[in-house]
């Protein structure tokens, strides 16, 4: 017993001296303890050597130990937040010269560390999101979730789990039971909230971008499964792969679908786009003028929203260009030029006429979607992209967001006006289920909806 006391005494006295900041009292106590435990003097000396070694090397391991969590005790986490946060914030350039850095308030520590932080003057949510990776390293965590609570308050969650590891199965609503106001669910965010695109509130076109096998087509299938069940949505589009829109080509609106890259299909695709611009858009705009309205805000089966799906849009344009060359068309008759012009008109003027364009592409390159056209598409879905350049083109407000991410198929970022960019995992639907569902929805439409209103 005496040996144990003698061994521990130097460490306890040294810790006490560090925390109380005094020297004399701990030194006198040490002398008294040495006298009392004199028979165990060797243990006292060993204890003293160990305590000095620990204190001397503290600067090398203490901070790392404090950060090496999640399983670390809350008290350590809180201490590290207190001593390290303002320095960290300064190091990543989020400190304000005009106001002191407010402390990081740890709200709970479990498998994840939850905290709230008041943003310094002049620092925005986007600034914090830009520094996501260095801030995640503050607790050596692989991930940091940043959620706005109020304009100047953010909730920060350092996580070690991967909340998007599993994909949910996509919803397949019964035909006629849903409408466009319900929105088109795409998946769920890291906070398990639904990620949903509401095409008409506010009205936006959508761009789905991602490298090959990144999950674009599955995401479109998830949207189309729901849209097919909405009586106030009419689906049309161009699909050079022939897979995505194939089940719609057997429905009552088959003329509104162009599949494949055969010369006749390409010509049909361009005629379809021409019809959408010259007839549908033209008539709808005339109708708006006649009714002294500036936009169609409510849709029903008599005046449906028209969802123009352009799957693999760059591949479609490339096929048009190849056909133009092969047939030696005159410049003003070229399919590619015409297709691009019609799409541009739909992007520029479609929304007020409830004509919504969805473009899927492996990249949003300028030669296919020049800045002007891209700017008119304000809902963006970005799946895995190989280059920083690719990210910059899709999410210019947070260009570095996904650059170092290891995104699995179906995992990406979702951006729509009025909301912060969210990381999400798209729901999953397999192709046979998708086909079955759309075919059932088409059968329902044939029985329940009257003539094609466009
Ligand atoms: N949300 C998801 N959850 C789970 N797996 C998915 C998800 N989305 C896609 N995948 C997987 O990734 C594969 C490729 O997806 P998809 O066909 O949508 O890619 P893509 O981006 O359209 O590729 P490509 O450019 O080659 O057409 C799918 O077959 C599926 O196995
Ligand atoms: Mg695809």
Task: Describe this structure as you would to a colleague.
This protein is α/β, with parallel strands linked by helices. The chain has 3 domains: 2-60; 74-159, 2-Layer Sandwich (Threonyl-tRNA Synthetase, Chain A, domain 2), CATH 3.30.980; 180-448, Rossmann fold. The protein contains 13 helices and 14 strands. Strands 6-5-14-13-12-7-11-10-8-9 form a 10-stranded mixed beta sheet. Strand 1 (105-109) and strand 2 form a beta hairpin. Helix 8 (263-290) packs parallel to helix 10. The radius of gyration is 31 Å and the shape is elongated. It starts with a helix and ends in a 6-residue tail after the last helix. The mean pLDDT is 89. It binds adenosine-5'-triphosphate (ATP) and magnesium ion (MG). The site of magnesium ion has 2 residues, from helix 7. Adenosine-5'-triphosphate binds next to helix 7.
Keywords:
454 residues, alpha/beta, Threonyl-tRNA Synthetase, Chain A, domain 2, Rossmann fold, four-stranded antiparallel β-sheet, 42% helix, binds adenosine-5'-triphosphate, binds magnesium ion
């Amino acid at each position: 017993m005496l040996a144990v006391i003698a061994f521990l005494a130097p460490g306890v006295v040294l810790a006490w001296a560090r925390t109380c900041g005094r020297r004399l009292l701990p030194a006198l106590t040490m002398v008294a303890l040495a006298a009392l435990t004199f028979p165990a003097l060797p243990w006292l000396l060993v204890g003293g050597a160990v305590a000095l070694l620990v204190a001397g090397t503290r600067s090398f391991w203490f901070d790392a130990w404090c950060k090496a969590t999640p399983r670390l005790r809350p008290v350590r986490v809180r201490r590290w937040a207190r001593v390290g946060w303002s320095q960290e914030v300064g190091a990543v350039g989020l400190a304000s010269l005009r106001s002191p850095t407010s402390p990081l308030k740890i709200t709970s520590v479990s498998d994840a560390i939850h905290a709230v932080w008041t943003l310094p003057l002049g620092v925005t949510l986007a600034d914090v999101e830009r520094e996501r990776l260095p801030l995640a390293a503050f607790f050596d965590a692989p991930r940091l979730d940043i959620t706005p609570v109020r304009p100047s308050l953010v909730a920060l969650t350092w996580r070690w789990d991967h909340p998007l590891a599993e994909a949910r199965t996509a919803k397949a609503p019964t035909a006629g039971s849903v409408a466009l106001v319900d929105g088109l669910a795409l998946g769920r965010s890291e906070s398990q909230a639904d990620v949903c695109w509401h095409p008409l509130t506010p009205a936006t076109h959508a761009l789905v971008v991602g490298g090959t096998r990144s999950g674009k087509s599955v995401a479109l299938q998830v949207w189309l499964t729901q849209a097919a069940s909405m009586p106030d949505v009419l689906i049309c589009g161009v699909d050079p792969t022939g897979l995505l829109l194939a089940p719609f080509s057997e429905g009552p609106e088959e003329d509104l679908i162009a599949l494949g890259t055969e010369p006749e299909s390409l010509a049909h695709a361009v005629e379809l786009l021409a019809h959408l611009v010259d007839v549908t858009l033209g008539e709808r705009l005339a109708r708006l003028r006649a009714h002294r309205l500036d936009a169609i805000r409510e849709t029903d089966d008599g005046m449906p929203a028209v969802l123009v799906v352009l799957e693999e849009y760059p591949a479609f344009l490339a096929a048009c260009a190849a056909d133009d060359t092969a047939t030696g068309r005159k410049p003003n008759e070229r399919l590619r030029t015409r297709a691009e012009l019609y799409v541009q008109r739909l992007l520029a003027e479609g929304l007020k006429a409830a004509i919504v364009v969805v473009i899927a592409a492996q990249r949003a390159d300028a030669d296919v979607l020049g800045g002007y056209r891209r700017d008119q598409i304000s809902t963006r879905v970005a799946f895995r992209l190989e280059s920083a350049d690719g990210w910059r083109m899709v999410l210019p407000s947070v260009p570095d967001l996904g650059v170092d991410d290891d995104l699995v198929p179906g995992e990406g970022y979702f951006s729509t006006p009025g909301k912060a960019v969210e990381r999400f995992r798209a729901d999953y639907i397999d192709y046979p289920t998708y086909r079955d569902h759309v075919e059932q929805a088409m059968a329902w439409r044939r029985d329940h909806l009257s003539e094609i209103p466009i």
